[in-house]
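Entry 14. Two folds queued back to back today. First construct below, sequence then structure tokens.
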Amino acid sequence: MKRRSSDFVFQLIQAMTKSEKRQFKLYARRLEANQSAKFVLLFEVLDKQKMYDEAQIISLIHVKKQQLSNLKAHLYK
């Protein structure tokens, strides 16, 4: 089921400038453990999407719907 761009994290990422996105990626990946962290993958997937598609996100990141909400909350913080 597709939602309009009503997701706050999606709107936030879409509103970021190219340099802000770069700075976030550098900050998030500063530790080796975060190189392949799921919240970084979520950021990249949301950045590439034109419209918010939750089903596509779940299939690309390989998480459950409940985990997705936790990842979005972590990313938003």
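Second construct, same run, same settings:
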Amino acid sequence: MSALVLGLCFATAFCAAWFGILVLEEGRGGRARTRRRLRALDRPQAADESTDESSILRSAPAPAGWLEPLRLLLERAGEPVGVAAFLAISATLAAAGAALGSALWQGEATGLAGAAAGLLPLLWLVRRRRARMRRFEQMFPDSLDLLARALRAGHALSAGLHMVGEELEDPVGPEFSRVSEEIRLGLDIGTALSDLARRADVPEMPFFVTALTIQRETGGNLAEIIDGLARVIRDRHAMNGKIRSVTAQTRWSANLLLIAPFAFGGSMALLRPGYVAPLWETPVGNTIATAALVMVTVGYVLCRRLGVVQV
């Protein structure tokens, strides 16, 4: 029974560390750098009163309410679950984990480790969001090609967006269909496109929305502009693929650095519980375990940063 409890403790600690690293990388990733660059480009225009207030390059207003980031995360992940239901699921898992840990092994530490199970839905949601946005980024050039062909055939912009929504699958299709439906129901095109850029958190989306906004105000060959943007996006994806292949060894080394201590500690807790018991039964062991966890986390982050190419 104690071996099972130790395994649960290691699993929950690993999930909590992994979630924290994902959140850290989410804020320091390429998309965050792109948004900062775009805001920096737009900052000199902020003092100009004649500048359009609906510029997509301007930083978005502060979210309304502390639950707004979670609602946006659910929306970007494509999950139909509401914020209240998601919080209820997380709270249920946390309570069940804490109760299970306390029942199997008396102690506050085990109960807290079991309560970390409430982070599992959030961890899964972050990974789901990243996978969906990566899929959106891969399909985005095809959607631009289809939109450009629709415009060359004489269709209006709203009709072209509707065609993209009908022809392509999730996640691109439903998002473009939503924009087309909002425009059909009377929402301003700029507002609908701004909402699309907020939901689709990909680096190229602000450029696409800005190109459509500028073309509506100044005119020009929109199909040619969209074709050029699609070519640029494909070239960028090809370059990113080369960079990922070159830095694959560094990223796998970082993953091994993170997984190996937990795998070794969990296996030893199952096979020889008395060998690793001093890590949580003695003050010195607690200090060593905490220091090891901090050093592994710092080493993982630094190793991953070595594989990041600033472009």
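Quick look at the second one. Residues 25-30, 41-63 have pLDDT under 50 and may be disordered. The longest helix spans residues 120-152.
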